[in-house]
Amino acid sequence: MSKKVVLVTGANSGIGLALCERLLTHSDQIHLCLACRNMQRAEAARTALHTSHPGADISLLKVDVGSLQSVLEASKEIKQRYKKVDYLYLNAGIMPNPQISLKAFVTGLFSRKVISMFATGEGLLTQQDRVTADGLQEVFVTNVFGHFIMIRELEPLLCQPGNTSQLIWTSSSNARSSAFRLDDYQHTQGVEPYSSSKYASDLLSVALNRHYNKQGLYSSVICPGLVMTNLTYGILPSFFWTLIMPIMWLIRIFTNTFTLTAYNGAEALFWLFNQKPESLDPRAKYHSYTSGLGNSYTKPQKMDLDEDTAETFYEKLLELEGRVRDKHRAQEDRR
């Protein structure tokens, strides 16, 4: 297959769909695989993309990265379809049952910290997590571990002799070390699983580069900025966003982190598609920015993390992978 194989998880809406639109506009020499949990929405996304790009080469893949069985089945399907994967966009993610402190929100809205509050959600957002059928925390497995298992399963396709491949994670400005603990990396004891999971993906990306660069596989993380997507709208009632949207557009004059639209939020994801992975900084987070005039651009920022912590976290994921696979094999044997 001469075309570049590009697989995007969570591709049926938001910045995932916007990325797909931008990639197809940029090049007709790609095979685009929309990896989604909801196949009805995935089909609708493919139809919309074919409307604007009639000759586009687009396939669908059913995968729920929050289910290890689904990830294993999808990975098997990928290996049957393709000989290589050039770009794996690890974009799917959840923020379940977000709760917001209205007092902190109103106070922050009229303070000097308003930009930081919107950009990071620090002190503002909590979530209610739950345990999945695999016995894992849902946010952790969906945002981090499910993708990790997919990478491990697809190693033969990602690590091809003479070929370079890219892993590109959708992280967040909400990724904070204060929400993450190595002794509780699934965040079972806290109330900020989303922030913890995004910091975990930052750590994992650094560790993956350490282990896979010599095999031609490179990992990067991006921050889409403040984007109005289904995930964002789930934080507050839609009418409230309508009321404060003029304020947010006004604030964008003073800060470039308010990308607001999915198209702008996908800027860094798209920018990385056009870069030589060997030239990228493995410890940088690539931010989507939009100027007050509406011009989008990408800017790297060094991540505040420790490489030893990243390596320890990677080792813990390998240990968890072993336990999970043993449990899965035992369940299969009983069937």
UniProtKB/TrEMBL annotation:
Catalytic activity: 3-dehydro-4alpha-methylzymosterol + NADPH + H(+) = 4alpha-methylzymosterol + NADP(+)
Annotated pathway: Steroid biosynthesis; zymosterol biosynthesis; zymosterol from lanosterol: step 5/6
Keyword list, A-Z: Lipid biosynthesis, Lipid metabolism, Membrane, NADP, Oxidoreductase, Steroid biosynthesis, Transmembrane, Transmembrane helix
One Pfam family of this chain: adh_short
Enzyme Commission (EC) number: 1.1.1.270
InterPro entries, A to Z: 3KSR/17beta-HSD, HSD17B7/Erg27, NAD(P)-bd_dom_sf, SDR_fam
Transmembrane segments: 231-251
Family: Belongs to the short-chain dehydrogenases/reductases (SDR) family. ERG27 subfamily.
Name assigned to this protein: 3beta-hydroxysteroid 3-dehydrogenase
